[in-house]
Design goal:
Helix content of chain A: 55-70%
Number of helices of chain A: 29
Number of domains of chain A: 4
Shape of chain B: globular
Oligomer: heterodimer
Structural class of chain A: alpha+beta
CATH superfamily of chain B: Winged helix-like DNA-binding domain superfamily/Winged helix DNA-binding domain
Number of helices of chain B: 4
Order of helices and strands of chain B: HEHHEEH
Largest sheet of chain A: 11 strands, mixed
Radius of gyration of chain B: 15 Å
Chain lengths: 880, 109
Amino acid sequence: MTPLRLLARRLRFLFRRGAAEREMAEEMRFHLEMRTEDGLAGGLPADEARHAANRKFGNLGMVQAKSRDQFVFQWLEQLLQDVSYSARTLRKNKGYSIVALLTLGLGIGVNTTAFTVLNRLLLRPAPFADTRRLVHIRATSADGSEGSVSPGDFFDLRAQNTALDHVSAYYVSWLSTLAEPGQAAIRCDSISATADFFTALGIQPVMLGRAFTDQDEARHENIALLSHSFWVKHYRADPRVLGRILRTDGGFQYTIVGVMAAALDDPTLFVGTTDGLAFCTLMSGMDPRYRDRGWNSVVARLKPGVTAQRAQAELAALARRLAHDFPKSNTGRGFKTVPFPTRAMDEMGGRLVWLVMGLSGVVLLVACVNLANLQLVRTTARNNELGIRLALGCTRARLIRMLLTESMMISTAGGALGLLLAQWSNRYLAAYWKVDMPLNFRVIGFTCVVSAAAGALFGTMPALFASREQVNASIKQGARGTTPDRYRHRLRQALIVVELAMALMLLAGAGYFVRGIQRITQRDLGWRPEGVLIGYLALDHDHYGEVRDPRSVAFGDRLISEMASLPGVDAVALSNDNVFGANPINFEIEGRPPYERDVLASIETPSPGYFRAYGIRLLEGREFRDTDRPGTPKVAIISANMAQRYWPGESAIGKRIGTEDPAHQDWAEVVGVVGNILHDLEWDPRRSRYAIYYPWAQNSFRYLAVTLHSSGDPEALKEEVRKTFGRIEPNIAFSFLGAADELMAQDLMQYTVARRMLVQVAGLGLLLAAVGIYGVVANLAAERTKEIGIRMALGAQPRDVIWLFLGNGVRLALIGTGLGLAGAFGLNKALGHLLSDFPGNDPWVVGSVGIVLITVTLVACWLPARGATRVNPMDALRAD
Amino acid sequence: MAQKADLLQGTLDMLVLRVLSRGELHGWGITQKLEQLSRSALQVDEGSLYPSLYRMEGKGWIEAEWRMTGNNRRAKFYALTRSGRRQLESETESWNRMAGIIAQVMHSP
């Protein structure tokens, strides 16, 4: 018999049960008849012959059962039986089924959503070959901080090592501008990399044209590769793009030699890009003698057979040699290999995602506890049925399997619902991160595993309990309708305690982050974002020069005067950067030793209205004036923390500071001190970076940030500003024009999304815990209806009965919150340790969460208790 | 009637296969044939025969077909399949070997 026919037979037996059974019966009847005839032929009377045949055959039912066992997939059959039975039970208990389904669907949905984000942003492998052998090299300083690699160090790394192949440097510049003749500038992300960058990554870099070669690098060729998406968007996928010129920052011109593979379009691939790469230029012309600071990231591939440890040891040796040869720049500097960072999020974002994942897991646990409780209640109610099953010879294993099948069916349905919910919420998350959030096989696999685990978790305990039932006792007990046994009672109270403790830790953990994120988003920046409109633009090189060009100064003067006359505008300023992105660099102070390499200040070059526009407080001295112009004495304004550091106890006014180049020192006199501001995502005012301001007119540059402050809504000003600007310079457009709030929101995006997710997760957790506690207490109360009736009949006052319940509830609430508080403080401590930079710790959050939970428990106890006291004692006594 | 012997554990399948190797038979026929071939020394228990038949059908060693018997009654006839014939050969072989070994041990001085 071929396997296929065999399977067909088995399936026939499974699904066409009736026919197969009939055949079996007929076959055995034939056998019996033949034996009876045999007996008749032997001379026995008809009756006796039939009896003899039956006796000989034995118990027909047993023979059939044994035969059946041989024939079909028994487990499958029993499973189908269990499934159809469970389906019937669940259909009958619609209330239970719906509650269970929703609880699990929400719990699993939250987990699936969190996992989708985790999977997409943190777990997705980069499209690079063998990422385990890909290393990222960072420079470390004596204090342990990590930084980029300087050009000099890079060339030595490349030349003097035997452990690494394809040592290559790159940097992401996220504000590079593309200026096509006759077209407005476009802001886009680009990478500048040495020739073997893509070889180091192990990726096929180009889909059209050619990649960079070592010869290109040796000849300092100015060449570029376009990204696939950029090529499609701006060149309409024209293959004749090869050989054309790409003009970028500072009048550079690159010949386009190729188009990159589409896999490199992924915006999460390179740290520092936001919308994905636009192009990649060949890095050339680095000065190998420059070692003071670095801006390059360095990647390399371990040579075959070389371990990461050996590479690390070799780098350490090189660092020691360099420190010996170049003590001024390299003392204390080391090198460290880290995995290639390809995540869309920074470290904090990554931790937040893991946290959301972890808290979602707790929510699911709470959901499981709820369902375990419900199941316990139900199996108690089904005591009779289960006892009868056991009495009729159902094995305990079979009983457990039957009950587990039911839980599994619910959890499977819950998983399906969870997937639907995740599908829906992922659409919003994808829009936040500007990436696709696919429900791929990994996510679906995750959901399946989680659903099965949840089903097993909440189903196992009640099933074990039910099967432990003493047959006798359960049948009798059920008939008498007394309170359930102590054991079960205790177990359910323990479940409440666990649930309370878990909910408290969940809320405290979420609260830690929500509070921290709140502190970050609401911190005192030292400047005021309200009413501020910001525009970025790049003047074109041919008409306005690069640096300190009189044409750009004149243009700036006109721009300021025109913008200042717009309605509602009370301050206008120009600068080269602004509070969102000032470059930190080294500085020197007259009369002091040369600059400290690791002490940086943000350099900003504002026009006179700047401090007013941003609301930065002037603490001492004066602001810039229109008279601080090219040709007049160089002046500077510094931040308060810098004045405090260098001139404690005296005035900084009149002191002189300069840039890091001692050979061409050009001291500027400090004329004012302003308040500290927080840059980027700094949140701790005590650690805000130093800031140095030089007047714009003395340092004009063709990249401009225009800042306007108005009394009204900045959004409403946008059109006027665009129109006015168009009159002054019709050939240039803003690359960005929007409210400061909008830029802030972009910077804080991962925090706000994380906060939203955390609040939702924690809220769901609280809701589930509250419903669970209420359910259990209400059920306990219902089971004690008779007792309450007796008490009331004997003269107990409603108040006493309520106190009886409240007392019980308070005890549980206190134990649960006590455990939870201990856990929450431990958790807070661990988080504070783990994320020392994160301002989340707040004992008030934990405390108030505890109060909320105690309140919820008390209300959950009070409601059913009050209900119970309203029962007529006679009805209660008669209740089954 | 000769003395009845209990079937040795695990030998029923082999005996049924042997019987069927001589031609198709229904369940009743198999019990008759076994008694006949053993000169009534073996009594096959129906409670073991049918599970054995179904098990072997499940394994694909035998296949069944409903047909008419000689006296015009419907019965389910079992026949050996190719894999059943192979199974019989291998069981016979190992049985012979085992019987030889046991005989050798029992008859050793």
